[in-house]
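Notebook B, p. 112. Complex prediction, attempt 2.
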Amino acid sequence: MLMDEIRYISPEISILCFALLIVLIDLFVKQKRALPVLAFIGVVIAAVFTLLIWGNAGVTAFYKVIAIDQFGLFFKLLILASVALVILASHRYVIKFDNFQGEYYALLLLSAIGLMLLVSSTNLIAIYVALELSSISLYVLVSFLKDKQSSEAGLKYLILGAVASAVLLYGMAFIFGLTGNTCLTCIADYIKGMPADNLLASPILLVGIVLLVAGFGFKIASVPFQMWVPDVYEGAPTPITAYLSVASKAAGFAVITRVFMTAFGMPSWLSSDWAMIVAVLSTITMTVGNVIAIVQTNIKRLLGYSSIAQAGYLMVGLAAMGMAAESDGLIRSGLIFFLLSYTLTNLGAFIAIIAISNKINSDQIDDYAGMGKRAPLLAIALTLCLVSLTGLPPTAGLIAKIYIFSGAVDQGLLWLVIIAVINSCISAFYYFKVVKVMWLGEPVSQEKVTSSWPEWIALGLCCILVVIIGVVPGAFVNLTQAAVKIFGI
Amino acid sequence: MNLNLLSWIIFLPVLGLLVIAVIPRPGHKTVKWIALAAALASFILSMIMFFLFDRSAAAIGHMQFEEKIAWIPAINSFYHLGVDGLSLPLVILMTFLGVLSVLISWKIQLRPKEYFVWLLLLESSILGVFCSLDLILFFLFWEIELIPMFFLISIWGSGRKEYAAYKYLIYTLVGSAFMLAGILCTYFITNTLDITQLAGMQVKSSFIPLTVLFFLLMIGFAIKLPVFPFHTWLPDAHTNAPTAVSVILAGALLKMGGYGMIRLCVSFLPQVAVQYAPIMVILAIIGVLYGAAVTLRQTDLKRLIAYSSVSHMGYVLLGIFALNQVSMTGASLQMFSHGVITGLLFAMVGLVYDKTHNRDLNSLSGLARQMPVIAVVFSIAGLASLGLPGTSGFAAEFIIFAGSFVSTALGGMKIYTLLAVIGIVVTSGYILWMLQRAFYGTPLNKYNGVGDADAVEMLSTFSFVAVIMLVGIYPAVLTDVINMGIAPIAQLIGM
């Protein structure tokens, strides 16, 4: 039995081993080139382990603390894929870290473990521990450049993150106080037995849910918990920004979905109540993100606000999920499909930015002028990713939007969808600003911008997948539908 | 017989652009010939389709050349193509303009590789819109068109090109945003995305009022056509776009709006269409008269033609929402005819500008002396635009008025029609005035050296003239086909 349970967390264990190995080797080896290779191998092995247990899906381990289900495994693969891409993209960037390359890769892997545990935990305490594990690694990584901006970003992230954790813990305490349980299914059972028929009848539950939304809201950067995003995104090393914007966000959405669908998914008055909270937050989130993004002049800040806006679209899917207590998989898989498309697209955009900024040493949008001439392929790739973020064909972004919004329309959230589609129009304005600068601006120098082969592999993979998902989404839709089956009623 | 003719027609330009894109550092000539070959192949196939098109009575109300492959099974979406009498003329129009726009762009010097890539992508996406029978696919093609347009206007345009490109982008996106919401609602009300099944479906919805659905879909089409209060993007986009793009924009892109109205709004929700037809007809009249009045005041040749499009599209809207079989046939013919006529007018303005580097009517005069061929062709186009009998403009407008005058779908159509006819008078005013000022005044010495149209230019402009004449003299070549597409839709309205 124990062996089985250990097998279920074999991906995490293997990553842990590689993280420690990297720290050890870093001590004794002068040649740092081996480290990223090692980190990459670790990720690949973990992915293989994850695929091996795909067949066993549907069990729990360690007294219902960890669930092995397709939902969790799907997100583990997504996280591993983004870590792998970030490692590839860091290839030239790590030179800036001098002697700390070992720590960089080790911390990256450690935070990945945290996120992987987070997406499969089914117990409030385990969720909290996993969240902290990933967050603490990320606090360090954000301040890794050790210059003024990066340190400030790290400190900000630390303090606000700590507050958010405290809020989350407080919320969990309320839920525990009410139900006497920390495991999600036990909480669900208790709530089903409650005599109440609306949220106001049970103030403790209400407070608990609101605090949980606030705590998780920090992780996914929903308004009003988004304050940290622009500064942290700007100050952090760009690969870490990319990582924060995709893996951390995806895991955040995964855990929210799991907690709210499992623990608070029934009865339907409860789920439609929190869905309404999410829907309202979603409108504010996407509007704030999109409107403020328009005036940004730094590309990392711009993508920071854009990722806030994207979180807003994702919350449309979450709200639809809450409303759809009794419908089919179509609605629920919209959120996951969007996350898949968003992860690839945003990573692609960031990898292109990393490659460009390595050369021009600037994140100002104006300095991207004439990039179409200086680095045509990078400019094409970045354009493609921005087009996908806008939600235009032939990319994953459009299909993802159609898919996530269709679920919301089905649940009677037409008003929310109309706000969301208008928001995508606003977003076109700033995404195309970057496109315009790249293709229409006069280059400041004639020097070509080159990039290294690992960056090309990572960027190429992202772009190809973005187009493939945009043109023939069928297989990916099936994959995401398999992932959400666990929430079947 | 299954040759996937439609897929070939749509994707041959894509094939062409891929070839252009993968050749490293191609010469200007290579790029142009590949683009021309792709566009020409697509045109030839569409002509073959036109001749193979089944015109028998049995084929009325059926899609032809259908292709259907599962695409996104989860939401019942298919890669589903087909043409009927409504879309076939528009497909031919687009492939025709596709060939000519390549010819018109023959002298382009700035970044030709990218230019032709975008131009071909634009052609593909518009063809896709006319052929799609699945709402998601329709929407996909509808949106693809934005990206090439944005680049074509903002890089190869003139004047306030970036402003115009942005304005175009945002306007269209707003329209399509509502359309997406409408399409999603349609799907959940009817549980199908198949356009052929939607036609004539007796929809009942507790979900959202059908009126709301109608207008969600309508806004996108109204912006594209453009209908009166949403027309302001058009003069900017037209004026600042490069010539070939203006030709496609006026020629085929605007027609996506009219096509969408007939294909979706009217045939899917005929009752709502009848209910709100008076509003649309009034907007059409405003568009006709206001557009014509504003055109009178323009002194920039290109802007003048652009505003005349607003007026002419008003006739299309009138024809559609007179909701009469004859008037809708007229509207479809007008879409085709306006596409060719205005395409030619823009091409001619482009030529005049190329030679004289001037588009301002105040400083042009007597050009007929220096460029006789251009003057003659320009005059023919102008006369066709004002509806001279013997040209396609006359045939189309006459059929619209004949249909709308007798339409009983809504009250007061006789008065509306009479009001719209006033537009023709104003049109004659601005067209003749324009021709007179640009070509028939005292010749200016400064233009003595400018040349006339060369062989390529003559080839492209004469083919426009030929089509205008052919349709003008024998409109049945198209109306027979169009009628087959319109008849079942008119039946739904029951008029």
